[in-house]
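wait is this the right file?? whatever heres the structure
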């Protein structure tokens, strides 16, 4: 019961975070994030990456987004690792390099980032940026699929 309550709280916080991103931050907030980011705060670095990636409150700039994502990703931020992986996969703001994309997806996947696990699994299945390996997709794709199924079935503790 407690774990279900915590899951609901987590989902509520996730929704709040998503809603806050839907509102363009003030220039004062952006300046504050920039100050923290320059001091090495990975959350602020990730936030700046999102702002430049989406063009929220700043001029949209893929290269600048990639720069901030990389700073946060190097500190282990899984969301930044996933977003940076996508940028390398698509060649947005960086030279397209699916091998580098796979590297970032794998770093996040090893930390339990479900979307990275799924993306990496498909890369192994298709042989994109990694040597094709039909056993690895099962490990990477099935794990996130099982998490989703358990949550929907109410089987999580």
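ok assuming it is, sequence goes like this
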């Amino acid at each position: 019961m407690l774990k279900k309550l915590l899951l609901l709280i987590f989902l509520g916080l996730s929704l709040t975070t998503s809603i806050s991103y839907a509102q363009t931050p003030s220039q004062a907030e952006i300046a504050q994030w920039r100050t923290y980011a320059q001091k090495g705060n990975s959350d602020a670095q990730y936030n700046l990456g999102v702002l430049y990636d989406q063009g929220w409150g700043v001029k949209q700039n893929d290269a600048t987004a990639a720069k901030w994502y990389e700073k946060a990703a190097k500190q282990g931020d899984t969301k930044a690792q996933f977003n940076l992986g996508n940028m390398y996969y698509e060649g947005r703001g960086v030279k397209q390099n699916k091998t580098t994309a796979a590297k970032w997806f794998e770093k996040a996947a090893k930390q339990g980032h479900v979307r990275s696990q799924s993306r990496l699994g498909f890369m192994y299945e298709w042989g994109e940026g990694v040597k094709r390996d039909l056993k690895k997709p099962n490990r990477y794709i099935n794990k996130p699929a099982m998490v989703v199924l358990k949550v929907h079935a109410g089987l999580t503790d």
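The two ends are 8 Å apart (CA to CA). so i think its the right one actually
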